[in-house]
Design brief:
With 482 residues, chain A is an all-alpha fold. Chain A has a domain at 70-246: Alpha Horseshoe (Serine Threonine Protein Phosphatase 5, Tetratricopeptide repeat), CATH 1.25.40. Helix content of chain A is 62%, strand content 1%. Chain A has helices spanning 2-12, 28-37, 41-50, 60-98, 107-118, 122-132, 139-155, 159-165, 171-181, 194-206, 210-217, 242-265, 270-285, 289-301, 309-321, 328-338, 342-350, 366-371, 383-395, 403-408, 424-436, 440-451, 458-471; strands at 227-229, 237-239. Chain A has a two-stranded antiparallel ribbon with strand order 1-2. In chain A, helix 15 (309-321) packs parallel to helix 17 (342-350). The model of chain A is unreliable at 1-7, 13-22 and 474-482 (pLDDT under 50). Chain B contains four helices and 28 strands. Classes of the chains: A mainly alpha (482), B mainly beta (401).
Chain lengths: 482, 401
C-alpha cells in the first residue's frame, strides 16, 4: 500500500523535475532580500552597495541589517566548513601516511599538527608540532609550527610558556596571539604573501582598522594551496593550512560586527535590537565576551523576537563562563528556560566544553533533546537549523547511514543541490554525512555546487578527493579540476 | 537487439508471452518529386501548416515552464512555472502573449513569523505547489491542484481577475487531477483520502459528491468526453495500468475496461467528436520497453482490448510521453499531434491521422519539444528548450486545405 501511495503522490504532483531558475533581480532592498533568500549573500550585499544612493532612507536600516546578517550567515557557514575541513584534512593526512609513496613527506606531521590544533585537539596538536622543529622544514614553516603549538599550550592552560613563544612580531605570531587572547597588537608590516595578508587582516579588524583590513583581504584567493610537494614522481601533494580557514571565518564575523554595531547603537527599533543580538553573537564568536555581553544586554532589554530571547539569555550567561565556570544551579535554570527553543538547544551544543561536561544539561539531558530536536516542531524548521542539527549529530557520532535520509527530508526534491532552494548549511551537512557514510562522489558533488558560490572550499574538496582516491578504486572519476 | 527485445523473443518462443502482431509501419505522407511538397491523402492533415512560426509566451526567460492547457474558448492558456520558491500557475491571453499574465496560487499572502523574517523578507516567498488547471466552460473560472505550501494537496477554485483562490475540498487530502466537464455541470477528480487514488464526482451546482470508482487499483488522469457523459481514466498498480471508461449519469454504472493487455496504458483523451480515445502505451512494435506508442481505440469499448488487434491501433510509435497533458487531438478530423522521442532531432513534432496512420512532420525549429496541446482554433501550444530553460510556445497549425 505504501508503494502505491508514493506512486500516487508522484503522479499527483506530476513528478516534475525541471531544474531551478533564477529570475531577474528587482532593484533596491526587495532585490537584495530576494538574493538573500536564495542564499546568494555576497550578491545581495553587492546589489545593495551598488544602489545605496537610491535606497530610500526608510529602507536603510533594514538594508544595513541584511548586510550584517549576511556576514553572520557566511561566518556560520565557514565555521561549519572548517569543522568538516579539519576532519577531512586529518583523514587525508592519515591516508598519506598509510601509503608507502608518501609516508615520508616532511609536510605531513606539520599539517597534521595544524589540523589538530584547529580542531582544538590541543594536547595531540602540541605533541605533533613539537616533533616538527627537528625536521627538515623551511624556517618559516617551523615558525608556524612553533606558534600554533604555543596556541595549543595556551588553551591547555600553560599560559606563561605560550606567552613567551607568542611574543614574536610577525603576522603569524600576531594571529596566534589573537586566537589565544582575543586581541593582539597589529604587526608593523603585513607582508606581501596572501597568507600574511589574511592573517594580518584578522588582527587589524580586531584593532578597529577595518578599512586597512579590507584592503589586505581584497583579491585574496582562499583556494590556493599553502604547499605543493613534488617529491614523489608523477604526484603532486597539496597541503592547506586550516589556520587560513580560521582567519577567514574570523573576517566574516568581524565584517558582521562592523556592519551591525553602529546599527545596534543607533537606538530603538527592531533593526537595532536584532543588530545588537547578532553583533553580540559575532563578538562572542571572536572571543571577546565582555564586549559581546554589553551588546547582548542591549538586545535583551529591547523588544527582541521571543524566539531569540533564549539564545540571548544563554549567550549572555556563556560570556561569563570564560572567567568563572558555571554553577550547576545556574545551568539547570538556564536549561529549563531555554530548551524549548531549537536554536538555543543547538547553541547549548556549540557551547559544550570538556571542563563542564559532567554538569547538566551537558551530562545527560542535552543529547536526547538534540536527537529528537526535529521530531515535533510547531512549524517546518529552516534549512539552516536542519543543517546545524545535522552537523551537530555528526559531531556526536550519529550513524552516518541514517543521517543523509533524515537531512534529505528537508532538501528541495526537485532542485537537489541548488543553492537557491537549499540552505548552504543543510547542503554542507549533507555533504559531511555522505562523506561519513563513504559516499564520496555525492559528498564531492554537493561541495562542488557550494563552491560555485563560496570560495575557500577547494582545500576541503582536494582532501576529500584524496581520501576517495585512496579508499575507492573509482576515486578518479570524481576528480575536481584544480 | 536490446536485452528486453531478446527476452521478449524468448518468452514468445516459449509461449509465455502473448503474441502481438506488429502493425503496419506508419505511412509517411507521400513526397513530391522535389521532396518539398508532400501530397497529402488524409483530409485531417490537408490543412496543416507545415512550417508554423512559433511564438514564445514566456516573459521570464530564466524560469522553467510546462504543462500548457487552453481554455475552452481557446483565448487563454494556462501553464505551470517554477516561480521563486513556488510552482505557480500562470494564465496568459493568447492574443497578447507578451503580457505577464495572471499568477494563480493556492497560498494566501503570509505574514512574517518574526521581526527578523519581515526585515529580511524571508517570510515572503510563496512555496506552494500549484498545477493541473482545468477551466470552466466560461473560460474565466478554473479549478486546480494546490497545497498552499503545506504538503496537503487539495483542489482550489479561482477566477481570472478574482480575489485569490479558495479551497474546494477543505476536508479532504491528496486530491488532484481535476477536470471540469465541458457542460460545466460536473467536476471529476482523483483523491487518495482513503489510501489510494479513486475518482470522485462533484456536482458543481450543489456541491454534492460521490465516489465514482472503487476497488484496490489506483485510478488517475480522468478525462471528459465532449458530451460530458463519460469519463475515461487510467487504473492500475505499480506493474500495469489499463484504460477504463465510466458513465457519470448512472450512479451504479460499472466502468468498462478498454484495455486488458500487459502493457502500461496511461492518460486517455477523447477525440473532439468523442468517438476515439487516445492514450500512451508502452507497447512498442520494436519490443523496446522504454518506447511509448500512442494508441487510439473506439471510445464505446467496441474495439479490441488486447493482442494484435489492439496493437494495430497504435497510431504513433516512439512518442514522447507527457502524462500531465496527454495525447493531443487536433480540433478537426481525427488526428493527433505529438512529439517523437528522437533526441538527435530534438523531439520533432508530427501530426498523425488516427484512422489512416498517415503522418506529417511539422517544422517548428524548436528544440526538445514536449507537452503538446491544441486549442479549438488549431493553435498548438507546447514546451521547448531555449538555452537550458523550458519555455511555452504557441504555433498555428490550421491553414487552408
Amino acid at each position: 500500500m505504501r508503494a502505491r501511495r508514493v506512486a500516487w503522490l508522484l503522479a499527483l504532483i506530476g513528478a516534475c523535475s525541471l531544474p531551478a531558475a533564477r529570475a531577474a533581480v528587482k532593484p533596491g532592498l526587495e532585490g537584495a532580500q530576494e538574493l538573500f533568500r536564495q542564499n546568494h549573500w555576497e550578491e545581495a550585499r553587492r546589489h545593495l552597495r551598488s544602489q545605496w544612493a537610491s535606497i530610500p532612507e526608510k529602507d536603510r536600516p533594514a538594508a544595513t541589517f541584511l548586510i550584517g546578517r549576511s556576514h553572520v550567515r557566511e561566518a556560520e557557514f565557514y565555521r561549519a566548513a572548517r569543522s568538516f575541513g579539519d576532519e577531512a584534512g586529518l583523514a587525508y593526512l592519515g591516508e598519506l601516511v598509510a601509503a608507502s609513496a608518501s609516508r615520508r613527506v616532511v609536510w605531513i606531521p606539520l599539517f597534521k599538527g595544524l589540523y589538530q590544533v584547529d580542531a582544538e585537539r590541543n594536547a595531540e596538536g602540541a605533541r605533533t608540532l613539537a616533533t616538527v622543529s627537528q625536521s627538515a622544514l623551511p624556517a618559516p614553516w617551523k615558525a608556524t609550527a612553533r606558534l600554533r603549538r604555543a596556541l595549543a599550550l595556551h588553551r591547555l592552560g600553560r599560559v606563561p610558556e605560550a606567552a613567551a613563544l607568542l611574543k614574536e612580531a610577525g603576522p603569524e605570531a600576531r594571529f596566534a596571539a589573537l586566537l589565544a587572547n582575543g586581541t593582539a597588537e597589529p604587526p608593523a608590516a603585513s607582508g606581501t604573501g596572501h597568507r600574511e595578508k589574511l592573517l594580518t587582516a584578522t588582527v587589524l579588524f580586531r584593532a578597529g582598522r577595518a578599512i586597512e583590513a579590507e584592503a589586505l583581504v581584497s583579491g585574496t584567493n582562499l583556494d590556493l594551496p599553502d604547499v605543493e610537494d613534488k617529491s614523489a614522481p608523477k604526484k603532486v601533494l597539496r597541503f592547506h593550512d586550516p589556520g587560513l580557514a580560521s582567519a577567514w571565518e574570523r573576517i566574516c564575523w568581524e565584517r558582521a560586527v562592523v556592519a551591525l554595531k553602529p546599527l545596534a547603537a543607533s537606538g530603538a527599533g527592531t533593526e537595532a535590537s536584532l543588530a545588537a543580538y547578532y553583533a553580540g553573537l559575532g563578538l562572542f564568536s571572536l572571543g571577546v565576551p565582555d564586549e559581546a555581553a554589553k551588546l547582548l544586554k542591549g538586545a535583551s532589554g529591547s523588544g527582541l523576537d521571543p524566539q531569540l530571547q533564549p539564545s540571548v539569555r544563554l549567550l549572555l550567561a556563556a560570556c561569563a563562563w570564560q572567567s568563572r565556570p558555571p554553577a550547576a544551579a545556574e545551568l539547570a535554570s538556564l536549561w529549563e528556560g531555554t530548551q524549548w527553543q531549537p536554536d538555543a538547544v543547538l547553541l547549548w551544543d556549540e557551547l559544550r566544553r570538556s571542563s563542564f561536561a559532567k554538569l547538566e544539561p551537558f551530562a545527560t539531558k542535552l543529547d536526547p533533546r538534540l536527537r529528537d530536536l526535529l521530531q515535533s516542531p510547531a512549524q517546518r524548521p529552516s534549512g539552516a537549523l536542519v543543517g546545524r542539527w545535522g552537523l551537530s549529530r555528526l559531531r556526536h557520532g550519529e550513524e552516518a547511514a541514517a543521517l543523509p535520509n533524515a537531512l534529505s527530508e528537508y532538501r528541495d526534491k526537485s532542485n537537489k543541490n541548488k543553492l537557491e532552494w537549499n540552505d548552504p548549511l543543510l547542503l554542507l551537512a549533507l555533504s559531511a554525512a555522505d562523506y561519513r557514510g563513504g559516499q564520496y562522489a555525492q559528498s564531492l558533488e554537493t561541495l562542488f555546487e557550494l563552491s560555485k558560490t563560496f570560495p575557500g572550499l577547494r582545500p576541503l574538496q582536494w582532501n576529500l578527493q584524496g581520501i576517495y582516491a585512496a579508499r575507492q578504486k573509482a576515486g578518479g572519476e570524481a576528480r575536481i579540476s584544480q | 537487439m536490446t536485452r528486453s527485445g531478446r527476452l521478449r523473443t524468448l518468452l514468445l518462443g516459449l509461449g509465455v508471452l502473448m503474441p502481438v502482431a506488429v502493425p503496419a509501419t506508419a505511412r509517411p505522407a507521400e513526397q513530391s518529386p522535389e521532396g518539398l511538397s508532400p501530397a497529402i491523402v488524409s483530409r485531417s492533415l490537408g490543412m496543416i501548416v507545415r512550417q508554423p512560426v512559433p511564438r514564445s509566451v514566456s516573459t521570464t526567460p530564466e524560469e522553467n515552464e510546462w504543462n500548457p492547457r487552453f481554455s475552452p474558448d481557446g483565448r487563454r492558456l494556462s501553464f505551470e512555472r517554477r516561480n521563486g520558491s513556488a510552482q505557480a500557475l500562470f494564465v496568459v491571453d493568447v492574443a497578447s502573449p507578451t503580457a505577464e499574465g495572471e499568477r494563480v496560487t493556492s497560498q494566501p499572502p503570509r505574514p512574517a513569523a518574526s521581526a527578523e523574517e519581515a526585515l529580511l523578507g524571508t517570510s515572503r516567498p510563496d512555496d506552494s505547489f500549484n498545477g493541473q488547471l482545468s477551466f470552466y466552460p466560461d473560460s474565466r473560472r478554473f479549478v486546480f491542484t494546490g497545497n498552499a505550501g503545506t504538503g496537503v494537496y487539495r483542489l482550489y477554485e479561482g477566477s481570472l481577475g478574482g480575489a485569490g483562490s479558495r479551497t474546494l475540498t477543505p476536508q479532504s487530502k491528496e486530491d488532484g487531477h481535476p477536470a471540469v466537464s465541458p457542460d460545466g455541470r460536473w467536476l471529476v477528480y482523483v483523491s487518495a483520502r482513503a489510501g489510494i487514488g479513486k475518482l470522485f464526482l462533484r456536482d458543481l451546482a450543489d456541491g454534492t459528491e460521490r465516489q465514482l470508482t472503487s476497488g484496490d487499483k489506483v485510478d488517475l488522469y480522468p478525462a471528459w468526453s465532449p458530451d460530458s457523459r463519460l469519463v475515461a481514466y487510467t487504473s492500475g498498480d505499480n506493474d500495469n495500468h489499463d484504460i477504463f471508461v465510466v458513465e457519470v449519469s448512472a450512479p451504479q454504472a460499472t466502468p468498462r475496461q478498454l484495455t486488458t493487455w500487459k502493457y502500461d496504458d496511461l492518460r486517455p483523451t477523447f477525440s473532439p467528436d468523442g468517438t476515439l480515445l487516445a492514450f500512451y502505451s508502452n507497447y512498442s512494435p520494436s519490443g523496446e520497453e522504454k518506447e511509448w506508442s500512442i494508441v487510439a481505440v473506439p471510445a464505446d469499448a467496441s474495439g479490441p482490448a488486447k493482442g494484435a488487434a489492439l496493437a494495430k491501433l497504435a497510431v504513433a510509435q516512439n512518442a514522447v510521453k507527457d502524462p500531465e497533458v496527454g495525447p493531443a487531438w487536433l480540433p478537426w478530423g481525427r488526428a493527433l499531434v505529438y512529439a517523437r522521442n528522437n533526441k538527435a532531432e530534438w523531439n520533432p513534432i508530427y501530426v498523425v491521422d488516427a484512422e489512416t496512420h498517415e503522418e506529417l512532420r511539422i517544422e517548428t525549429g524548436t528544440r526538445m519539444n514536449h507537452d503538446l496541446t491544441c486549442s479549438r482554433d488549431g493553435l498548438l501550444a507546447f514546451r521547448a528548450q531555449v538555452a537550458s530553460w523550458d519555455d511555452i510556445f504557441v504555433a498555428p497549425l490550421k491553414g487552408t486545405p
